[in-house]
């Protein structure tokens, strides 16, 4: 029975150490591949833990914003994984100089089927280093508007106002025009048009609009709200209420609240609203510098 067990173990040993192929002077067996797989999985897990520690325990105590913290942590993880991958190859006995042929084959693959993957990965590195967008920014790209929740190696996750997570390839943020509502600062300007009849008292209209803005907690006191007479039509006067807000992640809710207040307050004061109903297209969001 002991001899049978020994022979059985010897057979298993032979299977695991059978040479599958050679890489330079190194014979690659099943056991070599298993050891490499275990080390690579460990590397991925450890690098992920180091990233979390870097963000939660170190970078969170600095004055860096969330986007900068995530960018530094992501780049650090890629660096750890790159160095760790080299260490793993050397640990299993693979000479790096023998990988030149493999690198050439990978290069050919990138030139054909993997060029989109490589493009998105390089774009991800550009995003993390140049930071045209960062986690927490409200962006608009490829007809998608929402808040950036994650920037990965291949793609970026954008959370829309409908609470839908949309995966956007990183190359979109490099090759296409991107509207970043939070890049210069965390304020946006809402311009809301209001049309009234010529029978309305101009001073009362201006006072009421300023009062509506002042009573809304999401409207900033500085820069102060402003009301301007923008157009004199055949049968109506067009005013514009301009307000600044830091509610960049849901400006539509503030727009709706202001419009409802306009309807209610004007009805209370018997000020007649004129013209077509205010639509989403008629309400503009200006993210230009507030000094312009």
Secondary structure: elements and pairs:
Blueprint: H1 2-16, E1 19-23, E2 26-29, H2 30-58, H3 66-91, H4 100-111, H5 115-130, E3 138-141, E4 144-151, E5 155-159, E6 165-169, H6 170-175, E7 179-180, E8 188-197, H7 202-214, E9 226-232, E10 236-245, H8 251-268, E11 284-286
Antiparallel strand pairs: 1-2, 3-4, 3-7, 4-5, 5-6, 8-10, 8-11, 9-10
Helix share, percent: 40-55%
**Integer average pLDDT:** 80
Major sheet description: 5 strands, antiparallel
Unreliable stretches? 277-292
Using only C-alpha atoms, the radius of gyration works out to 30 Å
Tally of extended strands? 11
Structure description:
- Helix 2 packs antiparallel against helix 3, helix 3 packs across helix 5 and helix 7 (202-214) crosses helix 8 (251-268).
- It contains eight helices and eleven strands.
- The protein is α+β, with helices and mostly antiparallel strands and 292 residues long.
- Strands 6-5-4-3-7 form a five-stranded antiparallel sheet.
- It has helices at 2-16, 30-58, 66-91, 100-111, 115-130, 170-175, 202-214, 251-268; strands at residues 19-23, 26-29, 138-141, 144-151, 155-159, 165-169, 179-180, 188-197, 226-232, 236-245, 284-286.
